[in-house]
Amino acid sequence: MAGTTATDPGVTALGAGGNDGTMRAIVRSRYGGPDVLELATVERPTPAADEVLIAVRAASVNAGDRHLMRGSPFLVRLIYGGITRPRSGPLGVDVAGRVEAVGEAVTRFEPGDEVFGDLSTSGFGAFAEYVCAPEDVLASKPAGVTFEDAAAVPTAAVAALQALRDEGGIRAGERVLVNGASGGVGTFAVQLANWFGAEVTGVCSTAKVELVRSLGADHVVDYTREDATESGRTYDLIVDTAASHSLSAYRRALRPEGRYVMVGGPTSRFVRTVVFGPLLSMTGTKRLTNLMLRTNPEDLAFVGERLVAGDITPVIDREYELTDVPEAIRYLEAGRATGKVMVAVRGPNEGGDLAATAASDRSETSAA
Ligand SMILES: NC(=O)c1ccc[n+]([C@@H]2O[C@H](COP(=O)([O-])OP(=O)(O)OC[C@H]3O[C@@H](n4cnc5c(N)ncnc54)[C@H](OP(=O)(O)O)[C@@H]3O)[C@@H](O)[C@H]2O)c1
Q1: From CA 163, how far away is CA 241, in angstroms rounded?
Q2: pLDDT value at residue 363
Q3: CB of 103 sitting under 6 A from ligand 1
Q4: Ligand 1 centroid – CA 205 distance (Å)
Q5: For the chain, which residues make up each domain, given as ranges?
């Protein structure tokens, strides 16, 4: 990342940073499976004028991390650069941490502030001890919210929010179906749809039925036993994180004026919805669209407020150390995760074991 050095007058630093200008980060020099990832000591980045340097405390793993790691679908190579070899630095989209230094044009943050955000538009890098990010992709971490919980929400909860509210136009009293209700996005979609006052049906596998019910779903469909699009029940809004049915099946399951929003699933199905969704939406009153997540501090702040109020609670499946990011991505790829898979990051200034750090975060929260 372009920027200034730690001795530049334009950079305000918090303490010495506790190291020799280096940091540990997960890097890779080629595309492939989790084995291409390695923990390396690299130069610590320095913030450009509009950036802050964050001492990372927690990150979370998303499907986007595996796409970037594998360079697949091929489109990610075109978008992020690096046709034959990856050009971006460390991976990692979702971050929460403490501001260590700020560039001279930064107005919203100062050293010591606690922040969280989504680095997908600013070069990634959350799987590292430090990362630089423009201030406009970050929000202040609310007091009383742990770093772990804050790092769970930037992609998954904001995607759920934008799918329900912006693409889906959710209204109180509507019937909402969340397909893939036990995953990272789905667990937030069920809770947020409930908060918006909808009647929520969640679709998941057998082992996760009780969890989805506990998140506030009024009805739960076990997809191994029942096809939610064939039950005869219809919905005002379908938020789909799995794309396990045809577009015509989803269309049949919509009420008149109903909306289908595809968030994720296999790439071929995403392309199908981009191409055929608008065509199918031209006939009749039902609308079929894709979500394209738009990172912004307002929506981060919104989900932060929902965390503080207890309206949403991240479902954390597992937490890995920075050294174990390859295992964390391998676990996500296996498709068995429930809710979010987290990465705890302990910088050079932070002694003690990770469990103690997480426990102290949690006790700060309960004391607040
Ligand atoms: N459009 C955007 O801007 C955007 C933003 C964020 C994420 N995404 C995409 O959204 C997708 C979901 O992300 P995520 O983080 O929630 O992934 P995830 O945590 O892996 O969750 C996916 C869920 O799909 C469920 N599932 C699998 N087969 C199913 C089936 N046949 N019927 C119903 N549900 C099924 C799984 O539930 P069980 O475990 O119960 O089987 C799993 O919990 C990914 O493709 C991701 O790339 C897109």
Answers
A1: 10
A2: 41
A3: no
A4: 12
A5: 12-154+297-367, 156-290
